Amino acid sequence: MEALLSQLVAGLSLGSVLLLAALGLSLTFGQMGVINMAHGEFMMAGAYTAFMVQGLIADAGISLLLAIPLGFVIGGLMGLILEVTLIHRMYHRPLDTLLVTWGVALILQQAARDIFGAPNVDVRAPGWLSGSLNIGVVSVPAARMFILVLAVAVVVGLSLLLKTTSLGRRIRGVVQNRDLAETVGISTRSTDRLTFFIGSGLAGIAGVAVTLLGSTGPTLGTNYIVDAFLVVVAGGIGQIKGAVIAAFGLGLLQATFEYSTTASIAKVTVFVVVVVFLQVRPQGIFNVRTRSLA
Amino acid sequence: MSNNVGEDSSRVRADGNSLCWRTRGRLFSVVVFVAAAGLVLAGCGSRVGDSGGSSATSCVDTSGDSVKIGFLNSLSGTMAISENTVHDALNLGAEQINASGGVLGKKLEVVSEDGASEPTVFAEKATKLIGSDCVAAVFGGWTSSSRKAMLPVFEGANSLLFYPVQYEGLEASPNIFYTGATTNQQIVPALDYLKQQGVTSLFLVGSDYVFPRTANKEIKAYAEANGIEVKGEEYAPLGHTDFATITNKVRAAGAGAVFNTLNGDSNVAFFKEYRNAGLTAATMPVVSVSIAEEEVGGIGVDNLVGQLTAWNYYQTLDSPVNKAFVQAFKEKYGQGRVTSDPMEAAYTSLFLWKAMVEKAQSFTTDDVTKAADGVSYEAPEGTVTVNGENHHIAKTALIGKVAPDGLIYTEWSSGAPIEPDPFLESYEWAKGLSG
Fold this sequence. Notes:
The complex is a heterodimer of chains A (294) and B (435). Chain A has helices at residues 2-31, 39-56, 60-85, 94-116, 142-164, 166-176, 178-183, 188-210, 220-235, 240-260, 263-280, and strands at residues 132-135, 138-141. Chain A is mainly alpha-helical and 294 residues long. Chain B has 435 residues and is α/β, with parallel strands linked by helices. Chain B has helices at residues 27-35, 37-45, 80-99, 119-131, 144-157, 187-196, 210-225, 244-253, 266-276, 293-299, 301-304, 320-333, 341-360, 365-372, and strands at residues 11-13, 20-22, 66-73, 107-114, 138-140, 161-163, 176-178, 201-207, 229-236, 257-261, 286-288, 308-311, 376-379, 382-386, 393-394, 398-402, 408-413. The radius of gyration of chain B is 21 Å and the shape is globular. At the A-B interface, helix 1, helix 4, helix 5, helix 9 and helix 10 of A face helix 1, helix 3, strand 9, helix 8 and helix 9 of B.
């Protein structure tokens, strides 16, 4: 029983990490159709932001809380620059976007190596995030609890933004019918830019969060980018709730398989499950005829 | 091998069409390979091991007042993080040798090449260094796959490679000198130490590729012969970032110690999870074979304090030779830098080569290998001696403990250099392992 609950927690926690990494992608890839291979590097930028803030503010707790909004802004600005300089020229050439952003990803990785050095850097976790919380019979690492809460908060925030604000309405309008949106006076260019800013910013937040769990180094993004695409594809393009369900589903699957077999077999099995699932439902978990939002 | 991902970069041909897979969990690189199939077609054509090894012939020129040597390390790609440090140590060694008059009166002229973390590139650059730069010897390589890719090149051209990293053993090429530890100088002493400490059960955690799997096979054979119970064995794919499940398994198994052969970034995630799960060095120590001074900072000292490592060298060794080495290194590269086992082994390999050449009074491969047996050097790690038969060196095994200052201090020492035994022939329990 205890093992089962521990694994449930591990699965949910893994799901929340996947979700954070994938949320931004579900905006830029899901809504805008841009295959952005540099998304992982925006996560890396967020992680290094956490490192930099910690260099300025010694208190690990305050610096972490400050790094979250800062990571959002830095990731977002990098995304904005990428969109304005390169991506907007190739909205109708998705394969070119893939290659160009892959190149950008390599450049950003090398830039990180030149700026921060090749070895990983250490981002200290605040005292209140090391150790475990005891909930019933299971103990949940505090850092994982924090990431779970953060992921939920980001999802709620993003949903509110898309549903209730005028910016959200504009984004949805442009996604559903670009020409019509333009006809009624929405500036699709500025909407694209803002969507890309938000999507990349979310990667920055994810980057700050994963410093609590793993390494902070130039290759941080490459560890997450495949899983993030997997979540978005399995969840259904253009679907935030799809991404949520897919992330937690894949997290739980991975944790379950990993417990009963090994980490490598679990990873393979998850891929096989997703491939089989996409054979049955190529459109992902949610089937929407119009590309509406959550 | 140690410290970073990249070991898995051996390539296989996926089909007749030019699809080029990397056997890594990074599927997206496959996507890119497909998209760029035309560009990489040439690269896919050659398999590791047959990359033109026979085309290089040695053409060492010793008529002038200088002699060329090659440094072949990954200065780019995933392995750059580790191999750059080795490159720095080699450059320091060459500088010092030149300052003291060179080798046989000839100054060393260093030709540096970038192995780019790709075994095929290592083989190509080795061919270039031997065939067109005419170097007398090459120093470098880190991953076992890079070494295995270069091996036929050096054997084909009858040239010399000095390989500075601990590895999984079971190899002895007449053209390679192995100056890092083989298993009986690192893993076996670590097990001896644990046994001596009264540890009766082990949990094995490793990355999923050749080195950890080979090492764990040896560990299990040792454990069986010595009455140690192996309570579990877990492998994580390279680059794995989520250790919640493996940590749950480790905690549930409740072993006396964990033997860690994880590689690269996975170590960071593993130790953070380990600590957050409330496991400590006091209750369940972790012995690592891939974490040196260079990695401690990235993992976070807080997550590592009190944990054990197995190497043959630590920056904190208290000997005049080591103090001079550390001081010279810091003066050249900055006070914040640290020295580690592979760096020391690379530095030492340069001086061992110098000693061999001076004993042979010749730069040719055959003379140097003939003179190699018994060549000894007072290295920062202590006295090391070349074994002429298997081309490894006798070195002292050291178990270290990570201290709050981020450095590693010797906790236990084998006392004297251990003779290299790459095929573990002198161990009764290892019978049948190398077959």
